[in-house]
Amino acid sequence: MTAALTRGGRALTAAALTTATAVLLGAAGLVVAGGSGDARAAGGGAVVLDEGEIDLAPRVVDGRLRLRIDDRTGATPVERAPSEVVLHVPPATRQHTPSPLAEAFGLVSQDLWQLNGQQSAGLFALEPGWSGARAGDATEVRLSAFAGPGVFGMADFTSEMENADEPPRVYLGSADPAPRAFTLGADAQRRTPTWLFAAEGVYRLTFTVTGADGGASDTETLAVVVGDDVDPADVLPGDGATPTGTPGTPGTPGTPTGSGGPSGTAPTAHVISKGHLDLAARKSDGDLEFQVKEGTPEDHEWYEPDEVVLHVTPVARRKIPQGYDFLGTPGDPVWWLPMSQHPDIVWPGWSTTEWDKDEIDGRFTYRLDSVRGPGNVALFSDGALGGTEVQINSGDGLPDAMTIAADTHRHTYWAFTAEGVYRTTWSWSATLADGTRVGDTETLAWVVGDDVDPGGVRPGEGSEPSATPTPTTATPSATPSAASSEPAASPSAPAAPSGSAAGAPAPSYGSGGTSVNGSLATTGSGAALLAGTAVAALLLGGAAVLSVRRRQRRRAS
Description:
- The chain has 4 helices and 33 strands.
- It has helices at residues 14-27, 99-103, 159-163, 525-528; strands at residues 3-5, 40-41, 47-49, 52-61, 64-71, 78-80, 85-89, 94-96, 111-115, 126-130, 139-147, 152-156, 169-173, 181-184, 194-197, 201-211, 217-226, 270-272, 275-284, 287-295, 300-303, 308-312, 317-319, 333-337, 346-351, 364-372, 377-382, 388-393, 400-404, 409-411, 413-416, 420-431, 437-448.
């Protein structure tokens, strides 16, 4: 029996339909390949589509049934044959998949690459739909052939369905127990089921559409590149062969060609592009020293801030959600580091765990003294009573500061408003129990996005010319930081922490089942939902997660 993809068949509530419509309208008109102009060329004269709205739509052409793609990713809608395009599913679309949805395709609950998934609202990624309105009658859509490195599937499983314990509505898939076909109703103006892919690589999806009378039919093969192991521009469309070139060679998304260094000689720096790290206050002969700890409590290494470059990969690129006006205009891109760990994004926290509480009189202060870079930097968290608490925001003036108790480890959200190289100067300070003031000031280098190769960026203060970020206006309910009106102070005179700003729940990434607030993992949709989210896309055009550079100096813990 085939599932029907019709107006009456989707188990969506009115609220869910309204939300989905808003998301689709917001995404309409976005251009592909990260930004401006038409879709970029791929192998064999094809175009790569990786961002915006498309529909697969059977229609009658010259008296024959044909499967076509209505491409609305650019300024002007274009009709294309599936064999003329390569779809790109970027790394940012990898997200936690609830057990009922995964099991419908013979999988265990895991992170899968998803288009139109529950957490996709805030991603810069494709939004593929199906439309039967131009076919003249109901149409059977069959996955008649399949090739790829992992399972492919298509289903509806909204948060409302999950909360109501409804099973997924499965349309087709490449593995049992999923069906191989569904019926596209003639009244289906636009339906957007979730597309799932279980592994990175090149997929060939062969769809056969057949009219209601069982006579007229058309078969087309659609090429899809998932992840960034393969450059989609090197992939032939349709049922063509995948080139044998090695990903990561010059010209592919995996190898940025820009350099942030002042010369062609790459400085010696340790690049951290993913995983856990702490910006820590350490003990040092009775004083305080600011150092970077990479790894876990059981397995880690210590670095001076001027030894490392932190890389915020394209996976962190998201749309600014409603309620986060202190970051810019909702819908514009922002590079967002979540409060919970994502496997492909660096996860910086703050640590004073080397100090006992009775060693400190009061609390530690960490203060952002200055930012040099193409955009603004903000740190914030979910408010205790809802909304958003903005602790540090270079967009409304610096210095800004926060305090933290001894023997404490914490994480916040981070956001960068533009791609490029940033130099953030931080000061740690505290008063010891005997009244001695201690502190340290260091500059930490960041590379945001993939326009610049982090391996070519000098750590620490560097030598790029100064860039003046565009100030943003904080939300009206924000309490101005007491520190923002004062001149930069020494570590012995820390600035006061910022106030709070109202806002919507922060975007969630959901990989690994972590919750939106960094709490214990959950399989419920509350932990998985994006509020504009969170979570891409990256994006996109492929994430440039580069190989880790040789470490310059290591410090034993």
